[in-house]
Amino acid sequence: MSTWRGEAGVLRAIKEPFSIEQVELLRLDPTRVVVKTHASPFCSTDVKNWKGLLYKIPPTILGHASIGEVVEVGSAVPESAGIRVGQRVVVPGTPECGHCYYCSIGEPWQCSELFDLGGIYPDIARGDDGALISCAGCVGGYAEYMSISGNQVFPIESDLPSDVLSMLGCGISTGVGSVFNIARVQPGESVAIVGAGHLGLWMLQAARLAGAGTVVVVEPHEGRRALAGELGADVLVDPGAPGAGGAAEGATEGAADALAAVRAATGGRGADVVLEAAGPAVSQSFSVQAARRAGRIVLTGFEIGGATLPLPQVETALQSRSILSSQNGQVHMKSDLQRYTGLLERGLLDPDPIITRRYPLAGLDLARDRSGTLDDVCGIIVFDH
């Protein structure tokens, strides 16, 4: 059994700069795998984690999706898992243990190995000061080496670069899966996408692949609206104009105008499918109103742990809308992973407009800041081994 030591970006305290320091992985549990990290996307979720909005407990290593190379396999990882040293593997945000209640009924995106932990994640490393360090979300992708459950690594066969494939574990799986697996968009259906960050832009590309009719994108950020236009949105709506300002009355006017724009683009009814990829509760309430009667709404965002969602009562209770939840796009990684990889390989999904910048681990604070200010659609932390 080897000793694995390398740099990690450790969250030592909420709202403090990441500590780029040497850590040593703990003795490998027989059920786990050591992965040498190639690339990890900086997700907006980790801006919230850094701010303490999602109750992560320092010291911990953030980064909840990644890709890398297997360098050690625990003795209890079954051969049937097909995991071997030297393989490139995707590490998604959700494991698939195969035997918990949720996996046994075909819903591995709610796997108990992650969601029954109650937010207390395993310690996987020790700092030079002797402190035990956990892996937030059971991944800890902002580190040179990861210690991962054998149920949360998935071999991948592709010649595409790791920075592109790293997005399969979160952005692509959630965005594309929301279209294919949850909303099940049908040819000719109208689709409204609320939010044009990396999730919304993957949703847009997937909606086009599904044969959607009119696609409306609602996004206040001018640059991201422009990207949505380049990727094939038919109608671009600024929910902050006109007169949204910062006042509640102006914001209400802006939302009303945006709602009117969605309806005008969809025969006056509202969209057949509304995909929410923004986060704030007000955006989710808007999404429900933007759907037609008996339409489908897929919610993916959240803004803070413990937040509640106000919903319009008549639209929700009496107008037959289906409000659906997305966790990792409800993907089955063992089957969907290679399928989505094929879409990237054939150019049917385009990562170039979504990857804004690449950063070394030392640039973790800069990646966080640019994510938080929306300068980056998606920044990728890359490791030079």
Can you tell me about this structure?
- This protein has 385 residues and is of the alpha/beta class.
- The protein folds into 2 domains: 196 residues, Quinone Oxidoreductase, Chain A, domain 1; 152 residues, 3-Layer(aba) Sandwich (Rossmann fold).
- Helices cover 28% and strands 25% of the residues.
- The strands form 3 sheets. Strands 3, 5, 6, 9, 10, 17 and 18 form a 7-stranded mixed β-sheet that branches. A 6-stranded parallel β-sheet has the order 13-12-11-14-15-16, with helices on both faces. A 5-stranded mixed barrel has the order 1-2-7-8-4.
- Helix 5 packs across helix 6.
- The chain is globular, with a radius of gyration of 21 Å.
- About 3% of the residues have low confidence.
Average pLDDT confidence is: 94
Approximate helicity band = 25-40%
Stretches where pLDDT is under 50 for at least 5 consecutive residues are 242-251
Question: What would CATH call the architecture of the largest domain?
Answer: Alpha-Beta Complex
Q: Report the end-to-end length measured between terminal Cα atoms.
A: 21 Å
CA-based shape: globular
Question: What is the CATH homologous superfamily assignment of the largest domain?
Answer: Medium-chain alcohol dehydrogenases, catalytic domain
Structural class: alpha/beta
Q: Return the domain count.
A: 2
Q: Provide the gyration radius in Å.
A: 21 Å
Give a nutshell description of this structure.
The protein has 385 residues and is α/β, with parallel strands linked by helices.
